[in-house]
UniProtKB/TrEMBL annotation:
Residues 23-34 have a biased composition (Basic residues). Pfam families: PP2C. Residues 480-495 have a biased composition (Basic and acidic residues). Residues 63-377 form the PPM-type phosphatase domain. This is protein-serine/threonine phosphatase.
Length: 495
Protein backbone atom coordinates (compact mmCIF):
# COMPACT_ATOMS: atom_id res chain seq x y z
CA UNK A 1 0.00 0.00 0.00
CA UNK A 2 1.18 3.53 -0.64
CA UNK A 3 0.94 6.18 -3.30
CA UNK A 4 2.84 7.90 -6.06
CA UNK A 5 2.73 11.58 -5.20
CA UNK A 6 3.96 13.89 -2.52
CA UNK A 7 1.19 15.49 -0.57
CA UNK A 8 3.14 18.75 -0.66
CA UNK A 9 4.22 18.62 -4.28
CA UNK A 10 2.53 21.09 -6.63
CA UNK A 11 4.09 19.68 -9.79
CA UNK A 12 2.12 17.02 -11.63
CA UNK A 13 3.81 13.85 -12.82
CA UNK A 14 4.61 13.70 -16.54
CA UNK A 15 1.61 12.66 -18.67
CA UNK A 16 -0.77 12.97 -15.72
CA UNK A 17 -4.37 13.82 -16.64
CA UNK A 18 -5.61 17.31 -15.73
CA UNK A 19 -6.86 17.46 -12.18
CA UNK A 20 -5.25 14.18 -11.13
CA UNK A 21 -2.74 15.85 -8.80
CA UNK A 22 -2.05 19.10 -6.99
CA UNK A 23 -3.17 20.83 -3.86
CA UNK A 24 -5.92 22.89 -5.49
CA UNK A 25 -7.66 19.91 -6.98
CA UNK A 26 -7.64 17.85 -3.83
CA UNK A 27 -11.10 18.82 -2.61
CA UNK A 28 -12.67 18.16 -5.96
CA UNK A 29 -10.81 14.88 -6.20
CA UNK A 30 -12.14 13.83 -2.82
CA UNK A 31 -15.68 14.44 -3.91
CA UNK A 32 -15.13 12.65 -7.15
CA UNK A 33 -13.56 9.61 -5.58
CA UNK A 34 -16.05 9.32 -2.76
CA UNK A 35 -19.28 9.63 -4.72
CA UNK A 36 -21.19 6.94 -6.56
CA UNK A 37 -21.61 7.49 -10.27
CA UNK A 38 -25.20 6.31 -10.17
CA UNK A 39 -27.75 4.46 -8.11
CA UNK A 40 -27.62 1.78 -10.80
CA UNK A 41 -24.00 0.95 -9.87
CA UNK A 42 -24.92 0.81 -6.20
CA UNK A 43 -27.79 -1.60 -6.89
CA UNK A 44 -25.56 -3.70 -9.14
CA UNK A 45 -22.96 -4.04 -6.39
CA UNK A 46 -25.60 -4.84 -3.80
CA UNK A 47 -27.06 -7.60 -5.98
CA UNK A 48 -23.59 -8.95 -6.64
CA UNK A 49 -22.89 -9.30 -2.91
CA UNK A 50 -26.12 -11.28 -2.46
CA UNK A 51 -25.20 -14.04 -4.92
CA UNK A 52 -25.31 -17.44 -3.14
CA UNK A 53 -21.90 -19.08 -2.78
CA UNK A 54 -20.03 -15.79 -3.19
CA UNK A 55 -17.96 -14.85 -0.12
CA UNK A 56 -15.94 -11.64 0.16
CA UNK A 57 -15.89 -10.92 3.91
CA UNK A 58 -14.29 -12.88 6.73
CA UNK A 59 -15.97 -16.29 6.88
CA UNK A 60 -15.94 -19.85 5.60
CA UNK A 61 -17.85 -22.46 3.63
CA UNK A 62 -17.53 -26.21 3.16
CA UNK A 63 -14.65 -25.81 0.72
CA UNK A 64 -12.88 -22.60 1.74
CA UNK A 65 -12.23 -19.99 4.41
CA UNK A 66 -11.07 -16.40 4.08
CA UNK A 67 -9.86 -13.73 6.45
CA UNK A 68 -8.38 -10.24 6.19
CA UNK A 69 -7.16 -7.79 8.80
CA UNK A 70 -6.10 -4.17 8.59
CA UNK A 71 -2.45 -3.37 9.26
CA UNK A 72 -0.94 -0.24 10.79
CA UNK A 73 -0.58 1.80 7.59
CA UNK A 74 -4.14 3.12 7.30
CA UNK A 75 -7.17 1.83 5.39
CA UNK A 76 -7.17 -1.90 4.69
CA UNK A 77 -6.37 -2.07 0.98
CA UNK A 78 -6.62 -5.85 0.64
CA UNK A 79 -9.66 -7.58 -0.84
CA UNK A 80 -10.53 -11.24 -1.38
CA UNK A 81 -13.22 -13.50 -2.82
CA UNK A 82 -14.37 -17.11 -2.99
CA UNK A 83 -17.12 -17.87 -5.51
CA UNK A 84 -18.53 -21.40 -5.53
CA UNK A 85 -20.61 -22.70 -8.48
CA UNK A 86 -18.64 -20.20 -10.55
CA UNK A 87 -20.04 -19.46 -14.01
CA UNK A 88 -23.04 -21.66 -13.14
CA UNK A 89 -20.83 -24.77 -13.00
CA UNK A 90 -21.36 -26.91 -9.95
CA UNK A 91 -17.77 -28.21 -9.99
CA UNK A 92 -16.10 -24.80 -10.41
CA UNK A 93 -14.72 -22.44 -7.76
CA UNK A 94 -13.11 -19.04 -8.28
CA UNK A 95 -10.75 -17.60 -5.64
CA UNK A 96 -8.80 -14.36 -5.59
CA UNK A 97 -6.74 -12.05 -3.38
CA UNK A 98 -6.15 -8.41 -4.35
CA UNK A 99 -3.61 -6.13 -2.64
CA UNK A 100 -4.27 -2.44 -3.41
CA UNK A 101 -1.70 0.36 -3.27
CA UNK A 102 -1.75 4.10 -3.78
CA UNK A 103 -4.22 6.67 -2.40
CA UNK A 104 -7.23 4.83 -3.87
CA UNK A 105 -5.81 1.33 -3.76
CA UNK A 106 -8.66 0.07 -1.57
CA UNK A 107 -11.18 1.15 -4.21
CA UNK A 108 -9.18 -0.38 -7.06
CA UNK A 109 -8.80 -3.70 -5.22
CA UNK A 110 -12.52 -3.94 -4.49
CA UNK A 111 -13.44 -2.93 -8.03
CA UNK A 112 -11.24 -5.68 -9.46
CA UNK A 113 -12.59 -8.16 -6.91
CA UNK A 114 -16.16 -7.43 -8.05
CA UNK A 115 -15.63 -7.06 -11.81
CA UNK A 116 -12.83 -9.44 -12.79
CA UNK A 117 -14.72 -12.68 -11.98
CA UNK A 118 -17.68 -11.49 -14.06
CA UNK A 119 -15.44 -10.75 -17.04
CA UNK A 120 -13.66 -14.07 -16.65
CA UNK A 121 -16.97 -15.90 -16.54
CA UNK A 122 -18.23 -14.13 -19.67
CA UNK A 123 -15.08 -15.11 -21.59
CA UNK A 124 -15.17 -18.67 -20.35
CA UNK A 125 -16.29 -20.71 -23.36
CA UNK A 126 -18.00 -24.08 -22.83
CA UNK A 127 -15.01 -25.77 -24.46
CA UNK A 128 -13.03 -24.93 -21.32
CA UNK A 129 -15.02 -27.57 -19.43
CA UNK A 130 -12.63 -30.48 -19.09
CA UNK A 131 -15.52 -32.87 -18.45
CA UNK A 132 -17.49 -31.88 -21.55
CA UNK A 133 -16.57 -34.94 -23.55
CA UNK A 134 -17.42 -37.32 -20.72
CA UNK A 135 -20.68 -35.47 -20.13
CA UNK A 136 -21.59 -36.05 -23.77
CA UNK A 137 -20.91 -39.73 -23.30
CA UNK A 138 -23.04 -39.90 -20.18
CA UNK A 139 -25.92 -38.16 -21.95
CA UNK A 140 -25.73 -40.59 -24.83
CA UNK A 141 -25.63 -43.64 -22.56
CA UNK A 142 -29.05 -42.78 -21.12
CA UNK A 143 -30.78 -43.84 -24.34
CA UNK A 144 -28.58 -45.69 -26.77
CA UNK A 145 -25.64 -47.24 -24.88
CA UNK A 146 -25.17 -49.55 -21.97
CA UNK A 147 -22.39 -48.93 -19.44
CA UNK A 148 -20.04 -51.44 -21.09
CA UNK A 149 -20.35 -49.66 -24.44
CA UNK A 150 -19.68 -46.28 -22.81
CA UNK A 151 -16.65 -47.49 -20.89
CA UNK A 152 -15.16 -49.08 -24.00
CA UNK A 153 -15.45 -45.77 -25.87
CA UNK A 154 -13.90 -43.84 -23.03
CA UNK A 155 -11.05 -46.35 -22.83
CA UNK A 156 -10.24 -45.72 -26.49
CA UNK A 157 -8.96 -42.31 -25.50
CA UNK A 158 -5.20 -42.73 -25.59
CA UNK A 159 -2.79 -40.98 -23.28
CA UNK A 160 -1.83 -38.70 -26.18
CA UNK A 161 -5.45 -37.74 -26.76
CA UNK A 162 -5.88 -37.04 -23.07
CA UNK A 163 -2.84 -34.78 -23.08
CA UNK A 164 -4.11 -33.02 -26.19
CA UNK A 165 -7.47 -32.49 -24.52
CA UNK A 166 -5.81 -31.04 -21.41
CA UNK A 167 -3.73 -28.73 -23.58
CA UNK A 168 -6.88 -27.50 -25.32
CA UNK A 169 -8.57 -26.90 -21.98
CA UNK A 170 -5.59 -24.92 -20.71
CA UNK A 171 -5.44 -22.87 -23.91
CA UNK A 172 -9.12 -21.97 -23.59
CA UNK A 173 -8.62 -20.99 -19.94
CA UNK A 174 -5.53 -18.97 -20.86
CA UNK A 175 -7.37 -17.01 -23.52
CA UNK A 176 -10.20 -16.31 -21.07
CA UNK A 177 -7.76 -15.02 -18.42
CA UNK A 178 -5.86 -12.84 -20.91
CA UNK A 179 -9.06 -11.27 -22.28
CA UNK A 180 -10.58 -10.72 -18.84
CA UNK A 181 -7.44 -9.08 -17.43
CA UNK A 182 -7.04 -6.86 -20.49
CA UNK A 183 -10.66 -5.70 -20.39
CA UNK A 184 -10.46 -5.15 -16.61
CA UNK A 185 -7.45 -2.87 -16.92
CA UNK A 186 -9.09 -0.95 -19.76
CA UNK A 187 -12.20 -0.46 -17.62
CA UNK A 188 -10.10 0.95 -14.78
CA UNK A 189 -8.45 3.41 -17.18
CA UNK A 190 -11.87 4.71 -18.25
CA UNK A 191 -13.50 4.60 -14.81
CA UNK A 192 -14.63 8.08 -13.83
CA UNK A 193 -15.15 7.31 -10.16
CA UNK A 194 -11.68 5.98 -9.25
CA UNK A 195 -8.41 7.76 -10.04
CA UNK A 196 -6.09 4.90 -11.03
CA UNK A 197 -3.25 7.08 -12.32
CA UNK A 198 -1.10 6.36 -9.26
CA UNK A 199 -3.23 3.67 -7.62
CA UNK A 200 -3.52 0.00 -8.47
CA UNK A 201 -3.75 -3.54 -7.19
CA UNK A 202 -2.20 -6.98 -7.49
CA UNK A 203 -4.35 -10.00 -8.32
CA UNK A 204 -3.65 -13.65 -7.64
CA UNK A 205 -6.61 -15.66 -8.90
CA UNK A 206 -7.48 -19.27 -9.61
CA UNK A 207 -10.25 -21.37 -11.06
CA UNK A 208 -10.64 -24.94 -9.87
CA UNK A 209 -12.89 -27.06 -12.02
CA UNK A 210 -12.90 -30.74 -11.24
CA UNK A 211 -9.25 -31.74 -11.04
CA UNK A 212 -8.06 -28.82 -13.20
CA UNK A 213 -6.44 -25.85 -11.48
CA UNK A 214 -5.70 -22.68 -13.49
CA UNK A 215 -3.86 -19.75 -11.88
CA UNK A 216 -3.61 -16.19 -13.19
CA UNK A 217 -1.26 -13.81 -11.37
CA UNK A 218 -0.37 -10.11 -11.58
CA UNK A 219 1.89 -8.53 -8.95
CA UNK A 220 3.49 -9.96 -5.82
CA UNK A 221 0.64 -11.74 -4.08
CA UNK A 222 1.17 -15.50 -4.08
CA UNK A 223 -0.44 -18.94 -4.34
CA UNK A 224 1.01 -21.99 -2.59
CA UNK A 225 -0.18 -25.61 -2.68
CA UNK A 226 -0.09 -27.90 0.35
CA UNK A 227 0.47 -31.46 -0.87
CA UNK A 228 1.93 -34.79 0.26
CA UNK A 229 5.35 -36.12 -0.69
CA UNK A 230 5.96 -39.77 -1.60
CA UNK A 231 6.72 -40.49 2.05
CA UNK A 232 3.51 -38.81 3.23
CA UNK A 233 5.16 -35.62 4.47
CA UNK A 234 3.33 -32.36 3.92
CA UNK A 235 5.25 -30.08 1.54
CA UNK A 236 4.71 -26.61 0.06
CA UNK A 237 4.70 -26.09 -3.70
CA UNK A 238 4.75 -22.49 -4.90
CA UNK A 239 2.29 -22.06 -7.78
CA UNK A 240 3.14 -18.46 -8.75
CA UNK A 241 6.20 -16.25 -9.10
CA UNK A 242 6.34 -12.92 -7.23
CA UNK A 243 6.49 -10.51 -10.17
CA UNK A 244 9.00 -8.04 -8.74
CA UNK A 245 10.99 -5.50 -10.79
CA UNK A 246 14.29 -7.23 -10.01
CA UNK A 247 13.31 -10.44 -11.82
CA UNK A 248 15.64 -10.39 -14.84
CA UNK A 249 12.94 -10.69 -17.52
CA UNK A 250 10.70 -8.12 -15.82
CA UNK A 251 13.55 -5.65 -15.40
CA UNK A 252 14.58 -6.12 -19.03
CA UNK A 253 11.08 -5.28 -20.25
CA UNK A 254 10.81 -2.19 -18.04
CA UNK A 255 14.21 -0.86 -19.13
CA UNK A 256 13.34 -1.52 -22.78
CA UNK A 257 10.28 0.68 -22.29
CA UNK A 258 12.46 3.49 -20.85
CA UNK A 259 11.39 2.86 -17.27
CA UNK A 260 14.01 2.66 -14.54
CA UNK A 261 14.56 0.03 -11.85
CA UNK A 262 16.61 0.70 -8.73
CA UNK A 263 16.44 0.59 -4.93
CA UNK A 264 16.66 3.34 -2.35
CA UNK A 265 19.65 3.66 -0.03
CA UNK A 266 17.59 2.81 3.05
CA UNK A 267 16.00 -0.33 1.52
CA UNK A 268 18.57 -1.80 -0.85
CA UNK A 269 16.70 -5.08 -1.28
CA UNK A 270 13.46 -3.50 -2.52
CA UNK A 271 13.67 -2.87 -6.27
CA UNK A 272 11.23 -0.25 -7.52
CA UNK A 273 9.96 1.04 -10.86
CA UNK A 274 10.49 4.72 -11.64
CA UNK A 275 9.53 7.09 -14.44
CA UNK A 276 12.31 7.90 -16.96
CA UNK A 277 13.00 11.45 -15.79
CA UNK A 278 11.31 11.65 -12.40
CA UNK A 279 12.07 9.83 -9.18
CA UNK A 280 8.47 8.66 -8.83
CA UNK A 281 6.39 6.65 -8.17
CA UNK A 282 8.71 3.86 -6.94
CA UNK A 283 6.35 0.92 -7.49
CA UNK A 284 7.60 -2.28 -5.86
CA UNK A 285 6.12 -4.66 -8.46
CA UNK A 286 6.50 -5.20 -12.20
CA UNK A 287 2.84 -5.96 -13.06
CA UNK A 288 -0.37 -4.50 -11.68
CA UNK A 289 -3.87 -3.34 -12.51
CA UNK A 290 -4.07 0.46 -12.67
CA UNK A 291 -0.92 2.58 -12.05
CA UNK A 292 -1.38 4.18 -15.47
CA UNK A 293 1.46 6.63 -14.86
CA UNK A 294 3.79 3.66 -15.52
CA UNK A 295 1.90 1.76 -18.22
CA UNK A 296 3.94 3.38 -21.01
CA UNK A 297 7.19 2.54 -19.24
CA UNK A 298 7.13 -1.23 -18.81
CA UNK A 299 4.45 -1.88 -16.19
CA UNK A 300 1.87 -4.33 -17.59
CA UNK A 301 -1.30 -6.06 -16.42
CA UNK A 302 -0.78 -9.23 -18.47
CA UNK A 303 -1.21 -12.18 -16.09
CA UNK A 304 1.26 -14.99 -15.72
CA UNK A 305 -0.88 -18.10 -16.26
CA UNK A 306 -0.12 -21.66 -15.21
CA UNK A 307 -2.07 -24.88 -14.74
CA UNK A 308 -1.93 -28.01 -12.65
CA UNK A 309 -3.83 -31.28 -12.66
CA UNK A 310 -4.69 -32.05 -9.06
CA UNK A 311 -4.07 -35.46 -7.50
CA UNK A 312 -5.26 -37.17 -4.33
CA UNK A 313 -2.08 -35.99 -2.60
CA UNK A 314 -2.99 -32.33 -3.02
CA UNK A 315 -4.82 -31.01 0.07
CA UNK A 316 -5.26 -27.23 -0.07
CA UNK A 317 -4.23 -24.01 -1.82
CA UNK A 318 -3.40 -20.79 0.02
CA UNK A 319 -3.74 -17.42 -1.71
CA UNK A 320 -2.40 -14.45 0.25
CA UNK A 321 -1.17 -10.88 -0.06
CA UNK A 322 2.45 -9.96 0.63
CA UNK A 323 1.59 -9.07 4.21
CA UNK A 324 1.82 -12.83 4.78
CA UNK A 325 4.72 -13.73 2.50
CA UNK A 326 6.97 -10.93 3.77
CA UNK A 327 7.26 -12.60 7.16
CA UNK A 328 6.44 -16.30 6.70
CA UNK A 329 7.93 -18.95 4.43
CA UNK A 330 5.86 -21.23 2.22
CA UNK A 331 6.52 -24.11 4.58
CA UNK A 332 5.44 -22.12 7.62
CA UNK A 333 2.22 -21.11 5.91
CA UNK A 334 1.38 -24.67 4.92
CA UNK A 335 2.11 -25.91 8.45
CA UNK A 336 -0.08 -23.24 10.07
CA UNK A 337 -3.03 -24.09 7.81
CA UNK A 338 -2.55 -27.83 8.30
CA UNK A 339 -2.39 -27.52 12.09
CA UNK A 340 -5.36 -25.15 12.44
CA UNK A 341 -8.09 -26.43 14.80
CA UNK A 342 -10.60 -26.52 11.92
CA UNK A 343 -10.92 -25.54 8.30
CA UNK A 344 -13.12 -22.59 9.17
CA UNK A 345 -10.39 -21.01 11.33
CA UNK A 346 -7.35 -21.78 9.13
CA UNK A 347 -7.21 -18.39 7.37
CA UNK A 348 -7.60 -16.47 10.63
CA UNK A 349 -4.90 -18.59 12.30
CA UNK A 350 -2.54 -17.78 9.45
CA UNK A 351 -3.18 -14.04 9.68
CA UNK A 352 -2.66 -14.02 13.44
CA UNK A 353 0.59 -15.96 13.02
CA UNK A 354 1.80 -13.45 10.46
CA UNK A 355 0.97 -10.47 12.70
CA UNK A 356 3.01 -12.03 15.52
CA UNK A 357 5.86 -12.60 13.05
CA UNK A 358 5.76 -8.95 11.96
CA UNK A 359 6.03 -7.80 15.57
CA UNK A 360 8.83 -10.25 16.27
CA UNK A 361 10.93 -9.85 13.12
CA UNK A 362 10.31 -6.16 12.38
CA UNK A 363 9.39 -4.49 15.68
CA UNK A 364 9.92 -0.97 14.32
CA UNK A 365 8.01 -1.62 11.08
CA UNK A 366 4.32 -1.01 10.49
CA UNK A 367 2.40 -4.27 10.12
CA UNK A 368 1.06 -4.64 6.58
CA UNK A 369 -2.53 -5.47 5.67
CA UNK A 370 -3.08 -9.21 5.36
CA UNK A 371 -5.61 -11.21 3.34
CA UNK A 372 -5.80 -15.00 3.05
CA UNK A 373 -7.99 -17.44 1.13
CA UNK A 374 -7.65 -21.16 1.88
CA UNK A 375 -9.24 -23.51 -0.67
CA UNK A 376 -9.53 -27.11 0.49
CA UNK A 377 -9.32 -29.63 -2.31
CA UNK A 378 -10.92 -32.55 -0.44
CA UNK A 379 -14.42 -31.24 0.28
CA UNK A 380 -15.52 -34.44 2.05
CA UNK A 381 -13.66 -34.02 5.33
CA UNK A 382 -14.33 -31.21 7.78
CA UNK A 383 -11.05 -30.96 9.60
CA UNK A 384 -7.66 -29.88 8.41
CA UNK A 385 -5.67 -32.94 7.65
CA UNK A 386 -2.21 -33.00 8.98
CA UNK A 387 -0.29 -34.07 12.06
CA UNK A 388 2.24 -31.98 13.95
CA UNK A 389 4.99 -34.37 12.97
CA UNK A 390 4.64 -33.64 9.24
CA UNK A 391 7.89 -32.61 7.59
CA UNK A 392 7.90 -29.68 5.14
CA UNK A 393 9.87 -28.57 2.09
CA UNK A 394 9.88 -25.51 -0.33
CA UNK A 395 11.21 -21.97 -1.00
CA UNK A 396 9.61 -18.63 0.04
CA UNK A 397 7.42 -16.37 2.41
CA UNK A 398 3.81 -15.21 3.95
CA UNK A 399 1.01 -13.38 6.20
CA UNK A 400 -2.48 -11.61 6.43
CA UNK A 401 -5.24 -9.60 8.49
CA UNK A 402 -8.98 -8.30 9.25
CA UNK A 403 -12.06 -6.88 7.39
CA UNK A 404 -15.27 -5.06 8.24
CA UNK A 405 -18.96 -5.81 7.82
CA UNK A 406 -20.82 -4.77 4.68
CA UNK A 407 -21.88 -1.38 6.02
CA UNK A 408 -18.32 -0.51 6.99
CA UNK A 409 -17.11 -1.58 3.58
CA UNK A 410 -19.51 0.84 1.89
CA UNK A 411 -18.06 3.61 4.03
CA UNK A 412 -14.63 2.93 2.53
CA UNK A 413 -15.84 4.54 -0.68
CA UNK A 414 -16.06 7.87 1.14
CA UNK A 415 -12.65 7.76 2.77
CA UNK A 416 -9.74 9.99 1.91
CA UNK A 417 -6.51 8.75 0.33
CA UNK A 418 -4.27 6.90 2.73
CA UNK A 419 -1.27 8.84 4.01
CA UNK A 420 2.11 7.24 4.62
CA UNK A 421 5.40 8.52 5.91
CA UNK A 422 8.48 7.90 3.79
CA UNK A 423 12.15 8.70 4.09
CA UNK A 424 13.63 10.43 1.10
CA UNK A 425 17.12 9.31 0.04
CA UNK A 426 17.43 8.01 -3.51
CA UNK A 427 19.80 6.34 -5.89
CA UNK A 428 20.43 7.83 -9.30
CA UNK A 429 18.66 5.55 -11.76
CA UNK A 430 19.79 4.09 -15.05
CA UNK A 431 17.90 4.74 -18.24
CA UNK A 432 17.56 2.18 -20.96
CA UNK A 433 15.84 1.18 -24.06
CA UNK A 434 10.31 -0.47 -26.08
CA UNK A 435 7.31 -2.85 -25.90
CA UNK A 436 3.94 -1.46 -24.81
CA UNK A 437 0.81 -2.90 -23.23
CA UNK A 438 -0.32 -4.01 -26.71
CA UNK A 439 2.71 -6.15 -27.49
CA UNK A 440 3.35 -7.05 -23.85
CA UNK A 441 1.73 -10.46 -24.24
CA UNK A 442 4.29 -11.48 -26.86
CA UNK A 443 7.11 -10.10 -24.76
CA UNK A 444 5.82 -11.85 -21.63
CA UNK A 445 5.87 -15.21 -23.41
CA UNK A 446 9.67 -15.07 -23.06
CA UNK A 447 9.27 -15.02 -19.27
CA UNK A 448 7.72 -18.37 -18.85
CA UNK A 449 5.59 -19.09 -15.91
CA UNK A 450 8.00 -21.41 -14.25
CA UNK A 451 8.13 -21.27 -10.49
CA UNK A 452 11.57 -22.85 -10.90
CA UNK A 453 12.76 -19.47 -12.24
CA UNK A 454 12.21 -18.21 -8.75
CA UNK A 455 14.70 -20.54 -7.09
CA UNK A 456 16.48 -17.35 -6.00
CA UNK A 457 14.77 -15.66 -3.08
CA UNK A 458 13.28 -12.57 -4.72
CA UNK A 459 11.57 -11.40 -1.54
CA UNK A 460 12.76 -8.01 -0.37
CA UNK A 461 11.96 -6.65 3.07
CA UNK A 462 14.28 -4.83 5.41
CA UNK A 463 13.70 -1.51 7.09
CA UNK A 464 10.85 0.60 8.32
CA UNK A 465 7.35 0.64 6.83
CA UNK A 466 8.03 -0.71 3.36
CA UNK A 467 5.26 0.37 1.00
CA UNK A 468 4.45 -0.69 -2.55
CA UNK A 469 4.67 2.87 -3.84
CA UNK A 470 6.18 5.94 -2.22
CA UNK A 471 3.95 8.71 -0.95
CA UNK A 472 6.54 11.47 -0.90
CA UNK A 473 8.69 12.14 -3.90
CA UNK A 474 12.31 11.35 -3.02
CA UNK A 475 14.29 14.51 -2.36
CA UNK A 476 17.68 15.42 -3.78
CA UNK A 477 20.45 14.97 -1.20
CA UNK A 478 23.42 17.25 -1.95
CA UNK A 479 26.93 15.83 -1.83
CA UNK A 480 30.19 17.49 -0.76
CA UNK A 481 30.78 19.00 -4.20
CA UNK A 482 27.30 20.55 -4.21
CA UNK A 483 27.80 22.04 -0.75
CA UNK A 484 31.14 23.58 -1.76
CA UNK A 485 29.61 25.08 -4.90
CA UNK A 486 26.79 26.56 -2.83
CA UNK A 487 29.18 28.01 -0.25
CA UNK A 488 31.25 29.58 -3.05
CA UNK A 489 28.17 31.45 -4.30
CA UNK A 490 27.19 32.69 -0.84
CA UNK A 491 28.36 36.06 0.55
CA UNK A 492 30.11 36.17 3.95
CA UNK A 493 26.89 37.58 5.49
CA UNK A 494 24.81 34.65 4.14
CA UNK A 495 27.26 32.21 5.67
Amino acid sequence: MGTCLSSDSRDPLPNSPPGSVGIKKKKNARKKMGSRNSSFEYRREDLLHRIPGRLFLNGSSDVACLFTQQGKKGTNQDAMIVWENFASRSDAVFCGVFDGHGPYGHLVAKRVRDSLPLKLSSHWDTSVNGGELLKEFSLNTNGSMNSEDASSIVNTLSVEEEETKNAEIFQAFKESFLKAFRVMDRELRLHTGIDCFCSGTTAVTLIKQGRNLIIGNVGDSRAVLGTRDNDGSLIAVQLTVDLKPNLPAEEARIRKCKGRVFSLHDEPDVARVWLPNTDAPGLAMARAFGDFCLKDFGLISVPEISSRTLTEKDEFVVLASDGIWDVLSNEEVVNVVALAPSRSTAARALVETAVRAWRSKYPISKVDDCAVVCLFLDANSNDVMSSASSNTKSKEQPNSLDQADSAAEKDLLFQQPTGLDRSGTVHSGKDNETPTEENAEDFSDQIDQNPSDSEIDWLALEGVSRVNTLLNLPRFVPGDADRKALEAKQTPNER
